[in-house]
Amino acid sequence: ENAAYQAEFDARIDAGATIEAKDWMPEAYRKTLVRQISQHAHSEIVGMLPEGNWISRAPSLKRKAILLAKVQDEGGHGLYLYAAAETLGVSRDDLTEALLSGKAKYSSIFNYPTLNWADVGVIGWLVDGAAIMNQIPLCKCSYGPYARAMVRVCKEESFHQRQGYDALLAMMGGTDEQRELVQDAVNRWWWPSLMMFGPHDADSPNSGQSMRWGIKRISNDDLRQKFVDATVKQAEVLGVTLPDPELKWNEARGHYDFAAIDWDEFWNVVNGHGQCNVDRLAARVKAWEDGAWVREAAVAHADKQAAREKA
Ligand code: 3HC
């Protein structure tokens, strides 16, 4: 009986159909979606921390208002994604516990410090730029709730990237000190941004299955290459140098060649030993504990309402 369901599921995936929450799905399909969507949600929530640090220190009211909107968007993306994960039968509390206990992953990029205002612009330009590259194909993901969440996220993400680039253009048009701040931030964020796309395809345990199931539409390496090819021109217009002496156009390939990524650093950060991993989790644990009274009040209020309705 499962064989019939499995055959129908495979046929629908091969036909490019969308799987909905109430449809039969292989347990492994459900599990890998819970893994990816919940870690994506964790990335959004933890991703609010590096930038949130600069809301109170933005250089103008305009930049403060923009950054406030962006950080709020990231929080909203996290909530959409937790809601998409819940359609697969997991509870928000379990997902939160997995993050706060250090069991669940979130994007390595958020374990780097934001040292000054230029970092906020470079995060918008490079980190949100890489996130857009990664999230646009996810709008065509075979799992409906995830794909639909991505459509809304991608619209807001392009605003995030543009505002970052705009802030950097302003700084590059400023003083030498401002130009040095931008170049220094680019030097610190370039390689970690390339790591956002994940390990090389040959070292990616999930890619094969995720591509067969129409969850991952473009491979880690192909997306990373797309990002590099698109960003080199933007760096030229901005007037910054990307920190890779091997970055060079390869006519035969029709792409830019670039140097090897430091995978020891990648796995070191993914495994919890980056510059900010401890601070990021501590901040999330504190937010959870500080918010306990809100959860208790909401439950007490709901119980009172239920009792009133019963009376
Ligand atoms: N940071 C942390 N962990 C990473 C990682 C990274 N940059 N790249 C890969 N990994 C992990 C994977 O989660 C996997 O571990 P797991 O099996 O325990 O989950 C392992 O490394 C091997 O990687 P795979 O390539 O086999 O895993 P995937 O097939 O899941 O591919 C991915 C990794 C491309 C990140 C994919 O999970 C994905 O597309 N996720 C959804 C998008 C996402 O999470 N993007 C993070 C960017 S942050 C963001 O979007 C917020 C924006 O507002 C800035």
From TrEMBL:
The superkingdom listed in its UniProt entry is Bacteria
Cellular component GO terms, alphabetical: cytosol
Alphabetical UniProt keywords: Oxidoreductase
Q: Does the keyword Transport apply?
A: no
| One Gene Ontology biological process | phenylacetate catabolic process
Gene3D superfamilies attached to this UniProt entry: 1.20.1260.10
One Pfam annotation reads PaaA_PaaC
GO MF terms listed in the record are: phenylacetyl-CoA 1,2-epoxidase activity
Could you tell me the EC number(s) of this protein?
A: 1.14.13.149
Name this protein carries in UniProt: 1,2-phenylacetyl-CoA epoxidase subunit A
Q: Which organism is it from?
A: Denitromonas halophila
Q: Which gene encodes it?
A: paaA
